[in-house]
Amino acid sequence: MSPVIASVPSGHVYVRHLAPPDGETTVLRLPDPRPRADVPDAQWWPPGMLEAGWVDEHADEFDVMHVHFGFDAVSPDDLADVVASLRRHGKPLVVTVHDLRNPHHPEPGLHDAQLGVLVRAADAVLTLTAGAAAEIAARWGREALVVPHPHVVEEPRLSQERVPHAGFVIGVHAKSLRASMDPLPVIEEIVATLPELPGARLRVDAHTDVMTPGNPRHAADLEPCLRRLADDGRIELHVHDYFTDDELWDYLQSLDVSVLPYRFGTHSGWLEACYDLGTTVLAPDCGYYADQRPCILYGVPGSAPARSGAGAPPLREGLVRAYRDRPTWRAVPEERRRERLEISRVHEQVYADVLAAVAKRGVPCTS
Fold first, then answer.
1. pLDDT value at residue 37
2. How far is CA 115 from CA 98, 101, 144, 174, 290, in A?
3. What 3-state DSSP class applies to 160?
4. How confident is the model at residue 57 (pLDDT cuts 50, 70, 90)?
5. DSSP letter, residue 78
6. Dihedral sign for Cα atoms in the order 187, 193, 199, 200
7. pLDDT tens digits, one per residue of 205-253
8. Whole-number pLDDT of residue 310
9. Distance (Å, rounded) from C-alpha 277 to C-alpha 305?
10. 3-class DSSP state for residue 55?
11. What is the DSSP string of 250-274?
12. Which of 196-210, 269-283, 304-318 has the lowest mean pLDDT?
């Protein structure tokens, strides 16, 4: 009988791509509960499964809970209550550590406490890179199974040829300014380097909310600077709402280089998408990006301590290297399909193992 997994969340592209490409899997995943809050552009958030009451009410509907994302606003005490409820019902907990530092939190304390509850309680811990696994072992004494990130872009786009474009296009996407992002110093450094790169130009994208005065998310320090640089002809400024997937893939393939303007971080789905599409990434040395996929690292002054990119050169040198060498790092579709199949099989085995371990120790008596 197929185990039923309560994935937190289920609808995220990462979790959807844990299933094999042909869909033949021994695993069933519950759909995300309808959120109890009206949150635009996030159908699964906040995740209703991360409530002790939900576990108590639905314990007979799933076999394993697997937490990925979405616990940003759940207190450590409430997470402990979820863990306790899982234990009462004999339900194993699997945790995949995607972020060792939450990109939405300006300070690390809350996320550290949340992860501490989940990682210590987990029946199995997974993560995406060897560097992250080593940090998990150092911080919590837990051995994490390293399983790579599956592809993000789907067929037929995964196999389509890149459309040629004129010049050398560098892109920085400010999106809606997560706490981890500090795009202005990155943009200014690129602008200063452009004279060394004949034919190169900088495209800067930002979402409408951060560029609109009066909007609650307006970036009062960033918006006028970007307008001024655009008026001076030093950047190509594009202001728009969230891209659809197809629009995002078109955007990424319009770039030769995508520069990630992060002050801190761990792994990146954006990097995976660029790898799928053949766009070179310049990533900061504050996370495990170079462990994850091929990219060029640059040093971020004043950022979190460098990890996989210890001693990375300044951004200017990374830009010159990308311009000079024109790396052609692109995923091979057939290899991505094989990788996804292996990722699916690994997860099936993890679920089987934790269920066997729970069966061996027995379900606690709740009477």
1. 55
2. 10, 10, 13, 27, 23
3. coil
4. very high
5. H
6. negative
7. 999 999 999 999 999 999 999 999 999 999 999 999 999 999 999 999 9
8. 58
9. 30
10. helix
11. HHHHT-SEEE--BSS-S--HHHHHH
12. 304-318
- Name the H helices within 49-181: 52-58, 76-88, 109-121, 130-140
Identify which of 108, 92, 39, 28 has the alpha carbon closest to the alpha carbon of residue 70: 39
> Across residues 136-140, what is the average pLDDT?
98
Under DSSP, is residue 56 helix (H, G, I), strand (E, B) or coil?
Answer: helix
In the numeric block, the tokens 């761990």 are attached to: 266
Give the integer Cα–Cα distance in Å for 113 and 79. 10
DSSP helix/strand/coil, 281 = strand
Complete edge-to-edge strand list for the sheet that includes strand 168-173:
236-240, 200-207, 168-173, 257-259, 280-284, 296-298
Q: Which of 60, 273, 267 is nearest to 283 (CA)?
A: 267
Q: For residue 23, what pLDDT is reported?
A: 78
Q: Please report the domains of the chain, with CATH numbers, ordered by start residue.
A: 4-151+338-361 (3.40.50), 157-325 (3.40.50.2000)
Q: What is the dihedral sign for C-alpha 2, 122, 149, 170? A: positive
Under a CB-based contact definition with an 8 Å cutoff, are residues 162 and 275 in contact? no
Tokens 């994208």, residue located = 205
Half-sphere exposure of 186 (CA within 13 A, CB side): 26
Instruction: Provide the pairing of β-strand 168-173 with 200-207.
Output: parallel
Q: Which of 20, 180, 51, 175 is nearest to 111 (CA)?
A: 180
Which contiguous run of DSSP H or E holds residue 125? strand 124-127
The pair of structure tokens assigned to 76 is 């450590």
Instruction: Please report, for residues 166, 284, 305, 306, the alpha-carbon distance to residue 301 in angstroms, rounded to integers and kept in the order given.
Output: 33, 10, 10, 10
Q: Cβ distance 14 to 269 under 8 Å?
A: yes
